[in-house]
Design brief:
Strand content of chain A: under 5%
Radius of gyration of chain B: 68 Å
Distance between the termini of chain B: 168 Å
Radius of gyration of chain A: 19 Å
Number of strands of chain A: 0
Strand content of chain B: 15-25%
Helix content of chain A: 55-70%
Oligomer: heterodimer
Structural class of chain A: mainly alpha
Number of helices of chain A: 8
Largest sheet of chain B: 5 strands, antiparallel
Largest sheet of chain A: none
Structural class of chain B: alpha+beta
Number of strands of chain B: 20
Number of helices of chain B: 17
């Protein structure tokens, strides 16, 4: 059990490190061209703002979805909703102690994995919502979140490069195929599934925000943040 | 009958109470029979959480260990390997509580909690959650308020309320592990409704528009953004004291200012004239020695004329309103300069009298019945200037002796002759008296005179360029209209050829005294204001009048006794009586 886990982790690390270079990212100023480079601290602040905004919008979408579609049985859904979140193959810390123990590199990579894992499902969510005449407010919000997620991914990649001097692929490679299984469903089932997607996304957005804030605390005051 | 009714009533009551007592026990049983259940699971800081349950109606299960809590964590995707774990630590401080410490708390993963009996065979209750969904932060502590600002009247003020984050979550907030936002609520002491303010992460709240002397209640609660609200803190009371002195001072100040303003306005309005003089003094007018325009306005002509040097005694005569007393006047309105040039250049008459448009009297020296036509003699005289045209002056000067001499012969008895015309150069053409007899009786002569005169009109119009045309042309133009208007000024110069108006003129014929028609023609402005008439001998080569010497005195005598005369003219009889 443990060995498998260790193998998995090392394999992932190797995969990450062996990737040669990266795609051209417009935020790069390594060529020495006329662009003003941004400090890592400011970049981290911007990333945190992005994540905060994404989290807020997702939370609003969740509540709106509840009000519109799930007036009759919210409690039952909440109990079941957590189970349907797709899990990541990459181990992501979940306790504060774990998070405090892992390094900055792990934190950043965890964030990146989280972001990349949600790009495709959100697109799927958008199409599903359009299928059963969701209000425009909800559609606009989910659309906005998908767009912002892409720019967030870019920002985290640049952050990794600046802070860790590593190159990372921008395309997502942790693609979960489980979602494609739910192609044909009834209205109620699709509603339930969409709601679970939304709540799971909200949870992961919160996770991302927490990781990044911890990272920021570590950057500014290492002693105060390291110890609980 | 009454007794039976009472009995029936009693029975009914008994029955009803029995029924009621029967219905009561089931509810009591319902209340008593309640399963043990989980009441709440909560976290205060996203790091640890607790779960609490209640025993319910099973009073025999209150001992420790009778109820056990198990949980399972949905960590891995492999659901088959899920294992239930028992509560890591049952709380010692409180009963029926399970405490999960930070190592056992996994965020973003779903917990499933079960409440089981001791023997693990009965599951009384089960709930599922993720930890971030059960976060209920503690209320903030350390609420206090200060006055931010106060209005001028002291009635309304702004207040700042500040607090500290809850101590349990303070560390996490600082490290960024959880982000807390706050909500403030306030209300008046007696009202029911709370007013909410959401101001985010800041541990301060600004409340605007609080009234003085009113008690307000304020309370704050915290929330992990996007999740649940915590409990409200204890309310604090805000009371802004009412400062009366401030109102008094401001009111007094306002009243004083208004009073000053009003008095100023009254003062300015009442003293408007004086103030205008002080601030905007009038521009002093020009001071001219001599004529005072104020006197002119007032109509005090006595002073006015005295300035001009005329004899004061004769003034009322001149201004008398006798209709038949007419002024002899000469009209020199337009060509003042040219006329003076003519006079100076040709005749060099220095003592030419100042000419001005004096009193215009159109009927002077003339009766209304007769036409003021020219006499034949005048016509002949006027022919000469017409023939010569521009050089009329010289011709006239040459021909002067000719007309003069016959005049001399015809004038031995005429002590007074009227000026018939004045030429451009200022020469006076006189008309002999003989014409007067003939003209009135002879209509033909009249017509001739008229015709000749008309001819003359055309001829004498030419020398307009000299400048002096007003008199003659005016007469000519008036004659053209066919109506010899007796009101024109020129006709005053022509002889009256009727008998009657000659009366005043005849009378002076007997006089051998000098008559100066010229001086009479300028009653006001002639420097020698002699009332005496002087006979004009003729016109000398210089084109000046030759006057017969007055046997009595020089014609420049000015002293004359005021004798009441009809019309102001001195008759011969009166003149004899004058002793100078």
């Amino acid at each position: 059990m443990n060995r498998a886990k260790v193998l998995q982790v090392s394999l992932c690390c190797v995969l990450l490190w062996l990737r040669p270079g990266s795609q051209a990212v417009p935020l790069d100023c390594n060529d020495g061209t006329n662009c003003i480079s941004i400090s890592p601290e400011k970049l981290l602040d911007r990333v945190i703002q992005h994540v905060e905004l994404i989290y807020r919008v997702s939370e609003e979408s969740c509540t709106q979805f509840e009000e519109m579609f799930l007036l009759y049985s919210p409690n039952a859904l909440r109990s079941q909703g957590g189970n349907m979140c797709h899990s990541k193959s990459f181990p992501i810390p979940n306790t504060k102690s774990e998070i405090q123990q892992i390094s900055d590199k792990w934190l950043l990579h965890s964030v990146l994995i989280l972001v990349q894992s949600w790009i495709e499902p959100l697109v799927y969510l958008q199409t599903s919502l359009e299928r059963y005449n969701s209000p425009d407010i909800l559609l606009n919000k989910t659309k906005w979140v998908s767009d912002k997620l892409l720019s967030l991914e870019q920002g985290v990649v640049v952050l990794i490069r600046k802070m860790l001097d590593e190159g990372v692929l921008t395309s997502s490679y942790n693609f979960d195929n489980s979602l494609n299984a739910y192609e044909v469903q009834t209205m109620d089932e699709s509603v339930l599934r969409d709601y679970s997607l939304l709540s799971c996304f909200k949870k992961d957005a919160h996770r991302m925000e927490t990781f990044l804030k911890l990272l920021k605390c570590r950057q500014s005051d290492a002693l105060g943040c390291a110890f609980h | 009958m009454d007794s039976t009714m009472e009995l029936i009533l009693f029975i009914c009551i008994l029955f009803a109470t029995a029924v009621e007592t029967q219905t009561v026990p089931p509810t009591v049983q319902g209340l008593a029979f309640k399963l043990p259940h989980l009441t709440t699971c909560f976290s205060r800081e996203l790091l640890t959480f607790r779960c609490q349950w209640k025993v319910g109606s099973f009073q025999n299960l209150t001992e420790q260990g009778d109820l056990r809590l198990f949980y399972i964590l949905d960590k891995d995707s492999k659901k088959t390997e899920r294992k239930w774990s028992e509560c890591p630590s049952y709380s010692s401080l409180r009963k029926n509580e399970c405490y999960f410490n930070s190592t056992n708390t996994v965020i973003w993963k779903q917990y499933t909690i079960q409440l089981r009996s001791r023997s693990l065979d009965v599951v009384y209750d089960e709930i599922s959650f993720t930890v971030e969904n059960i976060v209920f932060p503690d209320p903030p502590v350390g609420l206090n308020w200060t006055v931010l600002s106060m209005s001028a009247s002291g009635l309304i003020s702004d207040v700042v309320v500040s607090w500290d984050p809850p101590p349990s979550a303070a560390e996490n907030v600082k490290t960024g592990w959880m982000s807390l936002v706050y909500e403030t609520q306030y209300r008046e002491k007696d009202s029911e409704k709370w007013i909410s303010l959401n101001n985010g992460k800041i541990t301060q709240a600004y409340i605007y528009g609080l009234r003085s002397n009113l008690e307000y209640e304020v309370r704050v609660r915290s929330q992990m953004r996007g999740y649940n609200y915590g409990d409200f803190s204890e309310s604090i009371v805000i009371l802004v004291p009412y400062k009366e002195s401030r109102i008094m001072i401001t009111a007094v100040f306002i009243f004083v200012a208004i009073g000053i303003g009003v008095t100023l306005m009254v003062f300015i309005v009442s003293r408007q004239q004086k103030l205008m003089v002080i601030f905007l003094p009038p521009v002093p007018g020009p001071k001219i020695n001599g004529i005072d325009p104020v006197l002119l306005k007032k109509g005090q002509l006595i002073e006015f004329t005295s300035i001009l040097g005329t004899h004061p005694n004769l003034r009322p005569e001149l201004y008398s309103n006798d209709p038949w007393v007419e002024f002899i006047e000469v009209d020199f309105d337009e060509p003042h300069e040219s006329q003076e040039e003519l006079l100076i250049a040709d005749s060099s008459v220095s003592n030419s009298p100042q000419m001005s448009s004096g009193f215009r009297d159109d009927d002077s020296g003339r009766a209304s019945c007769c036409d003021p036509d020219l006499s034949d003699h005048d016509q002949t005289d006027l022919h000469h200037p017409s023939a010569s045209g521009h050089d009329g002056f010289h011709s006239l000067s040459h021909t002067q002796p000719a007309p003069v001499s016959p005049q001399e012969t015809t004038w031995p008895n005429s002590l007074y002759s009227q000026v018939s015309d004045i030429t451009q150069r200022g020469e006076v053409v006189l008309s002999p008296e003989e014409q007067e007899i003939a003209c009135c009786h002879n209509e033909a002569v009249k017509d001739n005179l008229r015709n000749k005169r008309k001819e003359l009109q055309w001829s004498t119009v030419i020398p307009d360029e000299r400048g002096y045309t007003s008199e003659f042309t005016a007469s000519a133009i008036s004659d053209q209209h066919g109506n010899p208007n007796p009101n024109t000024t020129d006709q005053s110069l022509f002889t009256e050829q009727c008998q009657e108006p000659q009366m005043p003129f005849r009378e002076p014929q007997n006089l051998s005294t000098d008559t100066s028609p010229l001086s009479a023609a300028f009653p006001i402005l002639a420097k020698p204001p002699s009332p005496e008439y002087t006979v004009v001998d003729g016109v000398d080569w210089k084109n000046s009048l030759l006057l017969k010497p007055n046997k009595q005195m020089s014609p420049q005598k000015t002293v004359v006794k005021t004798i009441p005369t009809p019309g102001g003219y001195l008759t011969a009889d009166l003149l004899d009586n004058i002793t100078i």
